[in-house]
Amino acid sequence: MKNIKYYIGRRIIALRKAKKLTQLQLAEAINIHENNLGSIERGENGISMDTLMALSTVLDVDADYILFGERKKTNNTPIQNLIAELDSESQADLEEIIKLYIKAIKR
Q1: Does domain 4-68 bear CATH number 3.40.50.1000?
Q2: What would the pLDDT profile of 91-104 be if each residue is shown by its tens digit?
C-alpha cells in the first residue's frame, strides 16, 4: 500500500505538468532545490508548511487538494464552476470577453 507522501507527490506532478512547468521551474518558483522537489514528487520526502503554501500559490490550487486530493466544496453557481475548471490564462481571456460583452450591451 502506498503512503500519503506518494499520493501527494503524484498530485504535485500532475499539477506541475498541467501548468507546463519543469521540476526546475517549479522548484525555483517555490524556492527549494530541484532535487528536493524530485524527492517530494517521488513520495520519498514530506513537505513543510512553507513548501505546501508555496506550492498551493504557484500551482493555483487549495492546499487541501495537494494534501487530500479533494477540492473544497462550494456553493458556486454553474457558471462559476465552469470557470473554475479553466486554467488561469483561459480565465483571464474569458474575463476580457465578458468585459467586452458587458460594454457592448450597455450601449
Answers
A1: no
A2: 889 999 999 999 99
